[in-house]
């Protein structure tokens, strides 16, 4: 008789593996990264490279909606675990980038600019940099190129989406029948197009 032992770490329980892997999404991500990267290098014929950000938003929306819908259908939507996974996925890289940027700012900026840098850094940590830069700068203005944390606006939008979307999905799945869910989806697609 042969015995098998299964070892499941606590990390496996709190971070379940994705139920499906979509390799074509990696291709879309690559396209999006390259288009944004080339756009910021001012390469000719890549004038619409900023649309890569929209591609990222669509990919995130699709994947997060899929996960949330699966969890909501079995009534096990764990908001604390959901948000903890998002923080563990996004914030370490953000903090590393912010640390290097702040360090560079100390050596390059005047005291006035350091205060501005600190304010924009706080807005990035609080996931409101999209509002901060909207009210304080013009993204396409030449002065915006000196804003080290300007790129965090898209991360803030994504985090704000993560804040609201789980509740919406849970309510839709809990209170609408499948046919009404489909009607709502079609209606939103029509309004969005």
From TrEMBL:
The keyword Transmembrane applies. Keywords: Membrane, Transmembrane, Transmembrane helix. GO terms for molecular function: acyltransferase activity, transferring groups other than amino-acyl groups. Pfam families: Acyl_transf_3. The chain crosses the membrane at residues 89-109, 160-177. InterPro entries: Acyl_transf_3_dom, Acyltransferase_3. This is Acyltransferase 3 domain-containing protein.
């Amino acid at each position: 008789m042969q015995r098998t032992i299964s070892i499941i770490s606590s990390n496996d329980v709190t971070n379940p593996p994705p139920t499906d892997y979509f390799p074509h999404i990696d291709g879309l991500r690559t396209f999006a990264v390259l288009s944004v990267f080339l756009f910021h290098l001012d390469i000719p014929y890549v004038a619409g490279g900023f649309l890569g950000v929209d591609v990222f938003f669509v990919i995130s929306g699709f994947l997060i909606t899929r996960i949330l819908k699966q969890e909501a259908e079995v009534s096990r939507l764990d908001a604390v675990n959901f948000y903890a996974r998002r923080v563990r996925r996004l914030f370490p890289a953000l903090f590393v980038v912010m640390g290097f940027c702040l360090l560079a700012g100390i050596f390059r900026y005047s005291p006035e600019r350091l205060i501005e840098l600190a304010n924009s850094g706080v807005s990035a940590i609080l996931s409101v940099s999209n509002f901060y830069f909207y009210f304080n700068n013009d993204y396409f203005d030449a002065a915006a190129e000196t804003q080290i944390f300007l790129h965090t606006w898209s991360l803030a939008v994504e985090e704000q989406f993560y804040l609201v979307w789980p509740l919406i999905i849970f309510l839709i799945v809990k209170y609408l029948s499948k046919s009404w869910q489909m009607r709502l989806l079609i209606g939103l697609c029509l309004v969005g197009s």
